[in-house]
Amino acid sequence: MTKIAIVIQRYGDEINGGAETHARLLAKKLSIDYEITILTTKAVDHSNWKDYYSEDLEYIDNIKTKRFSCTSSKPDKKFRKYRRIILKRTKFQQLLSKVGLYSFFNKRKYFEATEKENDLWLKSVGPNSPELVEYIYTNKDQYDCFIFFTYLYYTTVEGLKIVGNKSIYVPTAHDEPEFYASVYNSTYKNAKFIMYNTSFEKKLIEANHKIAKTKRNNIAGIGLEQVNYNQQPEHNYSFKYLLYIGRIEGGKGCFELYDFFNKFKVSNPNLKLKLIFVGKKNPKLLPNNDIIFTGFVSNNVKQHLLLNCEALIIPSYYESLSMVTLEAMFEKKIVIANGNCEVLKNHITNSDSGFYYHNENEFYNTINKLMSLSEHELKQHGEKARKYVKQNYTWPHIIEKFDSAIKFIKNS
């Protein structure tokens, strides 16, 4: 049987990140016809990469999962320092920009990070797991194919250097500052096959990493299917609410959403609507009468909250696919998305369902429009949303694309 290793930065029941969940669902589907091994770290929290799991080996969904330690947590000062270097935003570079000389020096490659600086950045962003990388090197002949998730991380960049010749690379890239750093050029150079999540991601990568155009590739995304969960009475809220599901952090637009919604309720005190955040609590955001934080919840609870919300809201500026958006659409729920994110905006426009906003005023108008919809209009939005997902994101179609890519890797 063909042996495949899936390399992913975090993996487990306690993790609800998009790429991590994507990898887990894909692993379950591929395990029907292939022998799958997950290669990951012992970390849960991506902000420090501290070991959480103690076991080196466990079986999740009956799939072998090998875990490796990370050598250190993310040092904030060093992380910020090296981020400024790889993004070309040092104080000196900012000064040159103010006096109009930055472009002159940048065109002449004066600001390119050194190999050492790139390495220090990768170890800083993490997960810094030499054990995992060493395992890939030592056991590279034991697997027929390696599937790497997420362009950003140390394990992806270093792993592709070793087994790029038999790799399928799922970048999960989006239009964020780090995406443009030259340190990631090697991932597209080393990958044998690139599997994009969306046509927008393919266009973005090929426009900024020319080498990607020369690689065999396809667009797959993720599959959705009906899942039945038990009801959770402890979350049977009697009030109407908007729902956010995911990492609760500034980079996901949560601080802005928190601010927008608070201001909206001040202007609309009689509107009986609350906002619920589902995910690990962020100490910078505090609950109030209108905003609730559930913390991390089970899939049963998450599904129950999703099925009973007025709409799912995704405030992120940067997404490569957004699984939770597709999950909501599959369940015929309205999605309200940040229109500044092209991927999210495309889901809304291509499905002709849901809404998007670009600024605070549009956010207010969108909420008011949502609350004024009739039952018939709500049903229309729901039917269009599910139709869009079923036409574009079904597992048989996606697995067929991975089968073809794996066959290409084996025959190369």
TrEMBL record:
Gene3D superfamilies: Glycogen Phosphorylase B. The keyword Transferase applies. This is Glycosyltransferase involved in cell wall biosynthesis. It comes from Wenyingzhuangia heitensis. It comes from the Bacteria. Keywords: Transferase. Residues 231-387 form the Glycosyl transferase family domain.
